[in-house]
Amino acid sequence: MILRLYILLPVLAVVLFLYGAIVNIGYIEENRCRMTYMFEHPQYTRLPVKGNERFPKYGLYAYSEGYITQRVQQRIFTGAPVLFVPGSGGSYKQVRSLASVALRKGIDNNWQTHLDYFSVDLNEELSGVYGGFLQDQTEFLELCIQEIVRLYGARGRTIRMFIVGHSVGGKLAQAVVAQPGTRANIGRHVAGIVTLSAPVDKPVALLDHYHQSFYDRIEQTWRTNRSVESVLKPSQSKASLDDILFVTIGGGIRDIIVHDGLTSSRYADLHAMTHNIPNVWLSVDHLCAMWCLQFVLVMNRFLFSMVVPQGRGNFGFVEGKHIQLDKATRFLSQPFAGSLDDDDDAHVPVGKGKELLLVQHNPEQEEWIEDIRRSFTERHRAGLDRTRVQMIRLVPDKVAHRFLRVEVINSEQSNWLSGCAAVEIHGNSRMCLKAVSLANYTLPVPSSKFDRFGALLDMHELKRNNPTWTHVLVKIPRTNKPVQFSVDIFNPDERMMNLTMPYWFDYRAHTILHDASPDDSFYRINIHGMAYTYQTIALDLTAISCGGVKGTVVVKVRVPWATGYDRYAFHEELNQTTVYIYPPIQKPPGGEDEAEEVPIQLDVHLTPGCKYRIRYAQSLRVTIARIVQQHLVLMPAHCIALLLLAFKDQLSQTAHNDPAFVVGKLRSSLTKPGPLVMLLATSSLIAKFLTLFKSIPPVELLATPLVVSILIHLASLGVLVIATLGLWGAIAFCANFAHKIILRLIALPIPVMSSTFLSCIHKFPLAIAVLLIAIALTACGGVSLLCAAAVYFVLLSKAYEDYLENFVFHTARKIASRLFGAREQSERDGKRGRRRRRPANETGDELMVINFHLPLFFLVIMLGLLNVPSVITWAKNYHYANTLQPDPSLVPALIVLVCLAVLWQLNTPRNVYGYELLAALLVIVAFVSVLYCQVHVYRLNYSIGLVFLAITVHQIIAPKRRDVEMVDVAEEKEPDGMVEQADQESEDDKKGN
């Protein structure tokens, strides 16, 4: 019973992983992006690039619409240049949304300022999973930059451009300024780099060593020529890449390809997530980042804000990185509200170079009102006919008047919040003619319908810093739009709630607020104990009752150790809202005291007039989804490690002195808990032990929690068990069907030739292996590996057919002996049992052959799957070159195919010594796979190649097991038929030797 339950655990883990994948695809958060539309048909004009003959499959295009196309075809460019670089599998036409909005804005302002968008065609190559073309793409991108410089230089202009790179295109943009020998030349033409959903410092998966060397080269160059700090100290000299503005932008939880933690860089001047960018406020998926209207508008506003005139009718980007960074902070981060340039404001210097912004008041045109209520909301649906100034008294001695949460909707003045000493008298009211702006305390609040701003003030601290102040002022100018403002004064201890992250097995719902007051508009929730990226809490906010208003909830999530990852989640006109809380990057290691000091903070902004109930629970669905998203790439290493440990168990069934070698069953070895427990218990200990030796290469120290590691192990084991059962079913019931499929794939014009070719696979496996090696050398190693897997299946199915024939014959002979000669047969069997030891595997040699080759077949399949990106790249570029160059799959394919040529030709497994040493080697390779190949997945190619090489050498040179005396006696006493069978076995042994 316990063993059956153990078998169910891996299957359950596979089901959980499938469920997490489904949740990732479309059940976490709805897509609220609006489409970007064009007014005219887009035109892409190809521009000749000097040196393009080296890269005939790449190209450079300029975007245009309508009559603008004629100017582009005449090579007339007067705007500030922006170069778009697509990502893995991306098209140059993906620039359409960004370029169309920018073009329409340029037409609307009569070309007072405009942008020129260019796009690079990289042949839609899958550079995210195949790194062999990354260097070629970088060199062509360099040629494109030089060509754009020449286009503008022909009109006597010196320009600096912005590069917008999506996905791997962002990494190419970072690489082009780090090109050796040309860095100074290219860098001076690049004003800034903006990456969209790009894996900047770490790739999503390292499937070949070209990716590794590409990232290492960029890291080394940027570390040498770029300061990590965005603001340099006065004594610190500038590096050559410090003048380039570097902005990284992530998509959030909807981006299932490049998750949050991969989108930031230590060299970035600014990092932002789309769900925290003002006027975007939502997460976007990997492709949506290029057409989401909310984000496209903000991105173009940011680029247009840096455009300055350069001569007559020409425009370029402003010089000075500090100015560009200020613009990026204003548009892409959480800036202070307002432009600080209103007509009624004046800057007054106040000591030590500081200056305060004063807000002028005109009491004849304003209505001054002081309200003694602590919490209230006022709505003016018809607008205001006079400017209103709401006065909020500063009360320094009362704890209940310490914090102020104020929010305004549709206020048309940026400096709507200020503070002053109300000592002047106008009519029956106190007032002040000048007030100091508190715009640096205000922030925009997410809303899809209104201009909404809010502020949270510590009025006691404000009073201590400004002892003469008496009031905080909320100024709302006259308007015809509906206006609303709310004031909430409270004791922070009454609005602060603390909760602890539940244990991994606790999914109960907990209520932390039963019935909030309708006047309460703000709560702060501190979450302790949440440190890992997979941990997720579902926060449920339910509006119990609303007094004639529609509920709107805004939750700001702040993770103290993740700079730039603050997140706004807002839901409008919903009675029930669920917000998922998770840390985007793992908490740095620290003590328990530090964990208590920096909890994750949630600022919950509720709709005044509504009563809310707040509950929370650990979310299983999002937790599993994030584990799948971030740790799926680790599964190949665990699958191969568990398969090698199971293979080791298969080879360990025979005692050292036993003359007959026996191979165990793969399914039985996989379902034993020993290999799994050994891998879990000792891998982390071995990793810590190996770090003590400097001569040993550093292991991949992954801070993966034990729960996640167990789930990954179980899911990997479940995949192997299900695949083993499926393969046995395919061999047992679908062998004939598989033969027909292979005949179809061969598709020779003459059926007889197809059948002959299939029979050659059975009779001449060495010739087929040589053909596969030729395919690897002339086409692609991955293609030959997939073909080798198909041939291997044919050989296994043929071995199973032979086993069935012998099994039926042996069963029929047994029945006949029982019916017609049971006594004589039993006597003969008794004599043979005394004189000759039968093999421990009673099912026959053919089944033992299948048991031996089944794990090898799985290794071939895994090797082929690991190199599928090379196969796809070879197929996409076949009309450019018949052979894939460079081919990361070639070396492991040649190693495995040469070994298969020997193993297929020999009568394997041979009855030889040395399987104990081979089993020990399999254990070592299994642990190496877990310690060194989880992140660097491409290293698994060489682990599998080493296993095949060791098995092949062992089968060739190992001494044979045999008991000569027993075999001779058996030959003398057995009947003629059995002697003939023994002779046949002897001949087979000679052939094997």
From TrEMBL:
Location (main, coarse): endoplasmic reticulum
Domain GPI inositol-deacylase PGAP1-like alpha/beta: 77-306
Protein name according to UniProt: GPI inositol-deacylase
Superkingdom of source: Eukaryota
Cellular component annotations (GO), alphabetically ordered: endoplasmic reticulum membrane
EC number: 3.1.-.-
Originating species: Anopheles minimus
Function: Involved in inositol deacylation of GPI-anchored proteins which plays important roles in the quality control and ER-associated degradation of GPI-anchored proteins.
Places the protein is found: Endoplasmic reticulum membrane
Region described as Disordered: spans on this chain: 972-993
Domain GPI inositol-deacylase transmembrane: 707-951
Keywords associated with the record: Endoplasmic reticulum, Hydrolase, Membrane, Protein transport, Transmembrane, Transmembrane helix, Transport
Coiled coil stretches, renumbered: none
